[in-house]
Amino acid sequence: MSYYKPKFQHPKLPKNELGYTVADYDGAVSTLCAGCGHDSISGAIRNACFLSAIPPHRIAKLSGIGCSSKMPTYFLGKSHGFNSVHGRMPSVATGASVANRDLIYLGVSGDGDTASIGMGQFVHLIRRNVNMTYIVANNGCYGLTKGQDSATADLGSVGKYGVKNPFDGIDLASLAVLQGASFVARSFSGDKEQLEPLIRAAMAHRGFAFIDVVSPCVTFANNVGSTRSYAATRDNLEAMPIDFVPMREEIRTQYKEGSSQTVTLHDGSIIHLHKASRKYKPDSREDALMALQTANRTGKVLTGLLYLDTDSQDLNHTLALATKPLNSLGKDELCPGSRVLKSINEGLR
Amino acid sequence: MQATDTTNPEYFHKVVDCQYACPAHTPVPAYIRLIAQQRYTDAYLINWESNVFPGVLGRTCDRPCEPACRRGRVEAEPVAICRLKRVAADFKDEVADMLPKAGPPNGKKVALIGAGPASLTVARDLAPLGYEVHLYDAQAKGGGFMRSQIPSFRLPESVLDEEIGYILNMGISTVFSTYVDSMAGMLTKGYDAIFVGSGAPRGRDLPKLPGRKEADANIHIGINWLANVAFEHTKEIGKRVIVLGGGNTAMDCCRTSRRLGGEEVNVIVRSPFADMKASPWEKEDAVHEGIPIIDNHVPREFVIEKGKLVGMTFDKVEAIYHEDGRRNLVSTGEDPVFFPCDDVLIAIGQENAFPWIEKETGIRFTSWGTPIINDDETFQSTRKEVFFGGDSAFGPSNIITAVAHGHKAAVSIDLYCQGKNLSKRPPPHVTLVGQKMGIHEWSYDSIPITDERKIVPLEDLKKSLSDRMVEVELGFDVETAFIEAERCLNCDAQTVFTDANCIECDACTDICPTSCITFTQNAPEGELRNKLLVPAENTDQDLYVSGTLPTGRVMVKDEDVCLHCGLCAERCPTAAWDMQMFLYNMAKATPDLVDVK
């Protein structure tokens, strides 16, 4: 088995405006199963950060436990990383975001890490609107422990051992919309054309951005009867394609009138939604929930940007926390002295 | 684009750039792997089967393989293929017993005229089939231009004698020291076929340059002079020498002059340095020996004083390039420049000459003086039992081209002698074998190392200039050879794609270090080349296109900078990608000359 990638690159590999190639956003060679959907997500994250020209050292990768949570090793090898306790990544992310609001936080989790052991933490992360991107690599099974059905497995989906799942699965996208998340999307690991712009938009969004990514487990859930296999997902895919244009880039693509709608993010970046999204209003929670329920009822996998609140206020803003990272504050700012203490006490008398 | 037809062996053949560029299609990566495994004898035998003279070519080849080497496109320098070939020759064991012997006589008799690389190849390919082979040459020893033109400091006589010996020992009847002066006479001797491999023996002169006649005693035609040195008729030269010409013969002339008493040797050439025909490494070697190469100087006259050559004058020019690639040398208008000298060597090219082939033989020639040949597969002349090959067929080229001609001509002669159709050529010998050893393990060193090209050590300059028999290049030792061998990308380990297995998980696209693989909608070639992850601008390299996949897309692989690292196949969950070793041997009159497991 090859543990490292050859150093040679295509001599004409494009560079982004920082002068980096996509290979500069690579991580270690994956040790996940060959063909794992998670590796495609890693590839999409790498490509998205390259395209958005984010300096790797401005990103912090956070994860819990599971196949999904191993992923951060396999992309952005030059970024910060924190591999936390099972299901407790949201706590670490909250603390990190509060301590240093200038970094871009990218959480990667799985259906077990988020929908089972981490469910309590997950909903509070949404509720607090922590400024981060949270990606769930959702394969409906526990791949690391040989493929038991997970909490998100669909009712009736057949596992590798031939047993139908008797329970209804948790739909994390619906949950996120219902819980008040400010950015909710769903995608498929095998559809980078949609997943990459979604990740770029999520990273540009101010507040909690959630992407639920259907990511087939090639070893334990890619069989006939599984609702999360490559083939079944493709068969039932109802994709709303999107484009992401960062603020500093001019808009080059021409869109036919009425074929797409645009959403402008707080930083001036623009999201174009196409085709299936014609009648869809991504700024309406009701519409998003309705569309998700309809798709779920008909066995479809609805993907694309489901809900977006461009006016969202993140945790740092809501709690009026320090505007600078804590590590950049000096002694005088952290300990302003007895005169300030006295004036505070006076104010409370 | 149409899906690529990999059942046609020519597709994968073209992917192995070095082998494809080699006129004799030597399976280069296969023998380089054997060198890395210290199996020098086997590496030698694989070479010997394809190019007949591994020891000679490992020192003197024009190396069409190296500019083609894929490593040169992903890194600065190609693999030192030529010098690795020499490693196989230097470190092999005794091979004489492993080579084929003359076959039981088949009753057919062929004459080979000229004992250079083309004829020797024909002899080797035909002898195991039982042909009675008569080899004619004007010189006392075989080898042709390999012996007379290539100085001993580049090619020791012992190496040449050994490899020619392997062929002559296959029961070849030599008729040496015999100049064939009549083709008509040869045609009456009862040969079933005659092969002409007599080279391009006439060195070009400057007959009209003023002073040429008067200074004749000190003006020498390069190739004749080199032959005289090789056969020890010439043992010295003046202290100041001008060599005219910019090809490899000029380089051999100037370096030989340095060893025969020339102290102030100048190479003076019409064209700019970069346009010179000599191989870059031969120019380097000359410069290393303290020989200035003066470019953009056109000979004007030989200057004579008191009836003796004292120097030459030259006009200075500059090269003007036109859009269509033509080049004009235009005078700079400066005064002519004088270079003093005692001797001049003219090495400005050579041409074919067949004064001994009579018109009534029915062998016809082009206006260029080369024979009219059926095509470059059969090498049959306008007289059906006469075949040409090597420099005598299409004009001056190199040893490896002569060997390639020899293989094809031998096939033609064998078909002709059996009364078969010459245009029905036997197919190449091809195998394609999976290399999987475990789930993620290949039978070859798949991940390329990053070491840079190794330099061949040279003999001390003073020592090598003191004796023309001292070999300049010392060759790699085994440790250096191993590293150099490991630089090979194993381009013969083919990435074979099976559409039906692909689940389009993107793992191969994501892992590919050189971004070669794209899944996209099919389109005409030009459009497809543009919409790959990195546009495929090198149109010399093919696109490998799959059939339509379930999502309606196709897999497109740009062969250009594929490292053959096997990561696509390692990360493929369904073995849609597989690494399969491709062996291609061009058709020869005797198949399977050697047995290498």
Q: Helix and strand layout, with pairings?
A:
The complex is a heterodimer of chains A (349) and B (597).
Chain A: H1 37-51, E1 59-63, H2 67-70, E2 80-83, H3 89-99, E3 104-110, H4 111-115, H5 119-128, E4 132-138, E5 141-142, E6 148-149, H6 172-179, E7 183-188, H7 192-204, E8 208-214, H8 230-236, E9 237-239, E10 242-245, E11 260-264, E12 270-274, H9 285-297, E13 301-308, H10 315-318, H11 331-334, H12 338-348
Parallel strand pairs in A: 1-2, 1-3, 3-4, 4-8, 7-8, 9-13
Antiparallel strand pairs in A: 5-6, 7-13, 10-12, 11-12
Chain B: H1 9-15, H2 17-21, H3 28-36, H4 40-51, H5 54-60, H6 65-68, H7 71-74, H8 81-91, E1 109-113, H9 117-126, E2 132-136, H10 145-148, H11 157-168, E3 173-175, H12 183-187, E4 193-196, E5 202-203, E6 219-221, H13 222-230, E7 240-244, H14 248-259, E8 264-268, H15 280-288, E9 293-294, E10 297-305, E11 308-321, E12 327-331, E13 337-340, E14 343-346, E15 350-351, E16 386-388, H16 391-394, H17 399-417, E17 429-434, E18 436-438, E19 441-442, H18 461-466, H19 478-486, E20 493-497, H20 507-511, E21 517-520, H21 525-530, E22 543-545, E23 554-558, H22 567-570, E24 577-585
Parallel strand pairs in B: 1-2, 1-4, 2-3, 4-16, 6-14, 7-8, 7-14, 8-9
Antiparallel strand pairs in B: 5-15, 10-11, 11-12, 11-13, 17-24, 18-19, 20-24, 21-23, 22-23
Helix pairs in contact in B: 3-4, 3-8, 3-19, 4-8, 5-8, 8-19, 9-17, 13-14, 14-15
